[in-house]
């Protein structure tokens, strides 16, 4: 078994054990809290563990021992996975997404619980409120795991790791705000072009916390020099951009049976991605108005989705996204070549770069 597979297995086992330990607290408080355990377990049972893997290989790149999967690095990686799960719960509420990983989104599951039990009040409002609390609980649990990991590290390593983790949380939260603002304020005058605004959202909402931050957190935990940590950030940011661009392409053109979300879901949610910004920048005013009228309509039918997809293709937006993915991967690998790493870490990071950008889900 290679080191990546070993890490994923240990993170999976730690997630199961941690949730079981927290389920005791839930049951002691009230049996009605069982959905928090069930929904957390279901959400965390899927996923590709990319953030955990980048954290681990950042740790290895900075001198973490290959034969020593210590409780500190396992808990740190697991904490990142719980943070990601919390972000998904909140993101699905904000984006009004009905599904996640082939299952109903958490707020829809709570809504169904309300309907099944014939409770008073509005089911949708209950679902959203309960899911916000689930996301908050996952954030708290994430911090428990990270704090426990930091307690096992030398003080200087722990301080640097905490700073990197805290910066990640700030950036992704503010990036999420920029995202929801852009969906509503995109017509407002701005010093930045729509393309630049979309790039800014992508960087802070996703790219940094998906790749750059996990690399920096792992390297900091191993006591990596600041020059190495910054070098890994230079690898992680373009790779995170390529990762999110691939997500954006899949959100419009992906196969629903593979992605676990309806094809064209990003169009129904009205996401102002780079694909949309590039498309609008290349359309006539009349064609642009038609796109604006359709984008964000939750009732788009399949023919309307196909029309928008074709418009994006004909505008060259899809080709531009693919070019940017390829260019950012190339930049990340070029920056990786500049770092003095052991062969195993270098090969693992090259493999991860390919995995996160050359995928169908």
TrEMBL record:
Gene3D superfamilies: Farnesyl Diphosphate Synthase (1.10.600.10). Its cofactor is Mg(2+). GO terms for biological process: isoprenoid biosynthetic process. Keywords: Magnesium, Metal-binding, Transferase. InterPro entries: Isoprenoid_synthase_dom_sf, Polyprenyl_synt, Polyprenyl_synt_CS. GO terms for molecular function: metal ion binding; prenyltransferase activity. The keyword Zinc does not apply. Belongs to the FPP/GGPP synthase family. This is Geranylgeranyl pyrophosphate synthase. It comes from Cnuibacter physcomitrellae. The lineage of its organism: Bacteria, Bacillati, Actinomycetota, Actinomycetes, Micrococcales.
